[in-house]
Amino acid sequence: MDIQSILTAVATLSALGILVAAVLYVVAQKFKVIEDPRIDQVNEHLPGANCGGCGFAGCRNFAENIVTKGTLEGLQCPVGGRTVMDSVSELMGLVGEEIKPLVAVLRCNGSLQNAPRKLRFEGAVSCAFAHSQMAGENGCAYGCLGCGDCVESCRFDALHLDPETGLPVVSDSKCVACGACVKACPRKIIELRPSGMRVFVSCVNKEKGGIARKNCSVACIGCGACVKVCPADAITLENHLAFIDPGKCTLCQACVPVCPTHAIIQLKMEN
Question: What is the largest CA-CA distance in the chain?
């Protein structure tokens, strides 16, 4: 190959490279996204836990939604709480909603004492897997399986399994109400409720009373005694199961002593 051919090839490739670069530049300019600098500013005020408790894919995505929507309505950071949202509110010049502190609550009291084991599951140690394979070692198809999926999901060390009861225990002081444990539980027996005094039915068994009591001595039997004494109309009875609405409950505790199976639990915020 002579020098002229080489020079021609080099020139052709150079021209092609310049053309491609020019095209890419034009495309980049046309489709470039100019990001609002306030997103970084809001993100700096967030805790960086990326727990998803706010309902978005991490803190930065949460910041993007705040800036994009231009409002704090319906947007909360459960980890940062009031302090973080107040700082974001001041930064953005927006009015934030009042944050009511929440805490995870286990709606099952089927401990080893209240719901003795009838069999021993030898499969994988996972609530999700056990839920797909059996009702439960105590026979209850609704209660806690005690494998600790919720404990594994908690990034704040707010949950641990009690070896005496076989049930997970929530630490009020560490729980940030991120909701990870709620999502991890295959039986949906963990829910977020207002912190402080809590009165709730610690049972999710929808079987008839007699059947439920065969597996757990403290199961709700759907008798309706709690519904009758509630002055706030906060308790409903459906599918043989009572439920106390935390939004209506006045914490009068009238329902606690009338429950014949002691399925209604009264908890105070731990010190």
Answer: 103
> By the 8 A CB rule, do 219 and 201 touch?
no
**Whole-model pTM over 0.70:** yes
Q: Which of 84, 269, 99 is nearest to 195 (CA)?
A: 269
State the number of CA atoms in the 13 A half-sphere of 184 facing the CB: 25
User: How many other β-carbons are positioned within 10 Å of the β-carbon of residue 97?
Assistant: 13
Please give the Cα distance from 170 to 157 (Å, whole number): 9
DSSP H helical ranges for the chain: 3-31, 38-45, 59-69, 81-92, 127-133, 149-153, 180-184, 209-215, 225-229
Residue 53 and residue 117: Cα distance in Å, rounded? 34
Given 3-state DSSP classes, what are the helix, strand and coil percentages for the chain, each rounded to the nearest 5?
A: 35, 10, 55
Helix (H) or strand (E) holding 244, with range, is: strand 241-244
Q: What is the pLDDT of residues 82-124, one digit of tens each?
A: 888 888 888 888 877 777 788 999 999 999 999 998 887 776 6
**Over the range 255-265, which residues count as b (16 or more CB within 10 Å of their CB) and which as e?**
beeebebebbb
Which long-range contacts does 181-184 make (Cβ < 8 Å, 24+ apart)? Answer: 181/104, 181/150, 181/151, 181/153, 181/154, 182/104, 183/153, 184/127, 184/149, 184/150, 184/152, 184/153
Quote the tokens at residue 2: 């002579």
Summarize pLDDT for 56-89 with one digit per residue, the tens.
888 888 888 888 888 888 888 888 888 888 888 8
Determine contact, residues 263/202, Cβ cutoff 8 Å. Answer: yes
- Tell me the sheet residues that pair with 159: 170
